[in-house]
Amino acid sequence: MSGAAIDAVAARAPRPGLSELVREWGRIGCIGFGGPPAHIAMLHHLCVTRRGWLSEHEFEDAIATTNLLPGPASTQLAIYCAWRLRGIAGALIGGLSFIVPGLILILSLAALFLADSPPQWVLGAGAGSGAAVAAVALQAAASLTPASWRRAAAQPRWVLYALAGAISAATIGAWLVLVLLACGALEVTLRRAQPNHRTAGIYAWPLLAAAAAPTGGLLALSWVAFKVGALSYGGGFVIIPLMQHDAVDTYHWMTDGQFLNAVALGQITPGPVVHTVAVVGYAAAGLGGALLATTIAFAPSFSFVLIGAERFDRLRTNPTVRTFLDGAGPAAIGAIAGAAIPLAGALSETWQFVVLATAALALFALRRGVVLTLIAAGAIGAVASTLGAPLPR
């Protein structure tokens, strides 16, 4: 069907009821394995091709706009599409229907993997899938690089921003968000774009929250979740360096191995990759901590759409926003790649490095999918532990 024909169908297609939003967005939340590309494809098939609720042009504009926002872009796209169809009620119901199925599954798995005495095969599966995470991070950075490189206004600066993000993720992960913000602000300054008062405020208020975070407890957990939901530029995988240092080194909510498990669980479960934050919250403060972290991490996505959806056209063409992302985006990609260093450094057993090398081969040479690679790595770990292979301490 041509784009014009789809536009014509969309113009006269009846809008869905709220119960239909629950069913259709919930279905994507249940089967949405594969991260943002899979979610975008499913939403496009549902809203444009199959039901004609949105035109091709409307959907393309929605993708372009949500990609300008920090936080989980595919979640924001799901919320925005539901808002276009049924307003505020649609955004809330569609967004929750997309998020909740994967959240229930990942919390069930977190309870299993973070139990005081999990079965041996569970520990082995976690050690195996966790061993592959560093390769997945590199693959995620590699997949984001070409498009970002082509958009770069000055490619030498792109390299510098990416290096700044990579070095920061590998060394000072807890303060990575300030590096991302600084790269964006520097690009705005260098391009001689003057941010308005409101934009400057957006750059400044994270400093106040960062200063409060070291007090620990639920405030620290709230700050970590907030970074994930409101300050992550460049795709879902940038949440890894934003969380790792805090969760493992600063607040000791998790061990290195448990954090690797959390990242792997976020990849192999359906729905948003940001669900990883629920596992961190579970480790920090049980089920209540998981729900708190999840609520804070996803609240900005709902807020961006509910407050700003009617202004998205202006956002998409705002030169200051685009210039800021020209600096923050490459830094985020570098941070994803840099996160592979501490992720690989968290491995302690020889067989895990073999799994890591095998995963890299599968992802880069054989072009296998992330979900399949992580499940296979987990299966190898489960078998290895059953056969007596040593498990990480």
Topology:
Elements: H1 3-12, H2 18-31, H3 36-50, H4 56-66, H5 73-113, H6 120-131, H7 133-151, H8 155-171, H9 176-190, H10 197-212, H11 217-230, H12 239-250, H13 256-268, H14 276-308, H15 312-316, H16 319-338, H17 340-345, H18 350-365, H19 370-386
Folded structure, characterized:
The chain has 393 residues and is mainly alpha-helical. It has two domains: 3-100, no CATH class; 101-386, no CATH class. It has 19 helices and no strands. The protein has helices at 3-12, 18-31, 36-50, 56-66, 73-113, 120-131, 133-151, 155-171, 176-190, 197-212, 217-230, 239-250, 256-268, 276-308, 312-316, 319-338, 340-345, 350-365, 370-386. Helix 4 (56-66) packs across helix 5 (73-113), helix 11 packs across helix 14 and helix 18 runs antiparallel to helix 19. Mean pLDDT is 87; it is low at 1-10 and 193-212.
Kindly state the percentage of residues in helix.
over 70%
Which stretches are poorly predicted, pLDDT < 50 over at least 5 residues? 1-10, 193-212
* Largest β-sheet summary: none
Q: How many strand segments?
A: 0
Helix count equals 19
Mean pLDDT: 87
Q: Which geometry do the CA atoms define?
A: globular
- What number of structural domains do the residues give? 2
Radius of gyration: 21 Å
What assembly state would you assign to the polypeptide chains in this entry? Answer: single chain
N- and C-termini, Cα separation: 56 Å
| Percent of residues in β-strands | under 5%
Question: What is the succession of H and E elements?
Answer: HHHHHHHHHHHHHHHHHHH
The computed structural class is mainly alpha
